[in-house]
Specification:
Shape: globular
Structural class: mainly beta
Low-confidence stretches: none
Strand order of the largest sheet: 1-2-3-4-5-6-7-8
Strand content: over 45%
Length: about 110
Amino acid sequence: MISTKPRHVEPGDSWKTRLKLYTEKKKTYAGNGTSRCDTVRVTAHKLVVQCTRVLRLKKGSLVLSDQVTHKGHATATAKTAIVGGTGRYHSAYGQGTVTLAGPLLHFALRVDE
């Protein structure tokens, strides 16, 4: 994962992150993706960001939208919405969770069509 996130985040800051996607069970390469996050709120102990994520897979792409609350360096989990897609996923919708643990992101998605 490569990110342009600033060291000290201020309200209004945004950054992009490049992702390499792997399957959970077999740990095989599944595709790549990008995240673009915008800072919504910053307090002494909390950072709230709104993110749009594009997951590019072999048969098409999924577009996700979520708002994540970070409390220090602890693992953060948030609900994410599947808001669209391309290719096989052109009519996709649904929801899931995104978990951020250090440099790793884990997506658990329920894709409906």
